[in-house]
Please model this.
Amino acid sequence: GNSVTQMEGPVTLSEEAFLTINCTYTATGYPSLFWYVQYPGEGLQLLLKATKADDKGSNKGFEATYRKETTSFHLEKGSVQVSDSAVYFCALLNTQGGSEKLVFGKGTKLTVNP
Amino acid sequence: DAGITQSPRYKITETGRQVTLMCHQTWSHSYMFWYRQDLGHGLRLIYYSAAADITDKGEVPDGYVVSRSKTENFPLTLESATRSQTSVYFCASVDRLTDTQYFGPGTRLTVL
Model:
């Protein structure tokens, strides 16, 4: 079946530190991969995505590369800000069979201190 | 305004009462979803719908009922609320051109 495993948090960093949140997946076929972000008190919103192997998704200084050989999609940012404090979810979409159901990891809470 | 909305945003109810959470989207997306979010469990899919009048169970459907008579609305009903249904509930719809899910702001439900 399809599953996503992401590093457990919480993660606490100082402003301008480097961020990595690990995400690995199990899936048949060729899934699309996503990172969603949830700011306090809000719903999830798409941060970035990649639809095929070696694609790099990027947005707001965050990046993630779809690595099929290691079945990974790690999220990185070179210099975090206080405003990046949120919960980050890795997710995959496997449209085999026509389903649009996302499979989510459990989320990683990031706190950035000034 | 375009988007996806949920109502109410906060609800307190008592065990055994029926509660309906509303979800409305303005994009005419065919797919819609209901999730619950609980500490330690992340997001869990309750029900989803591929189109009007087509619904299917997700990971945790017990105790919930859904309907989808119109494309834009996807209400979730707790027929007889239990304390274990205290949670934050999120509705979402999918833009199939980009495979992007758009989430509502959530409903925080407390069952006493």
Summary: Chain B touches chain A through 22 residues (CB under 8 Å). Chain B has a mean pLDDT of 94. DSSP finds no helices and eleven strands in chain B.
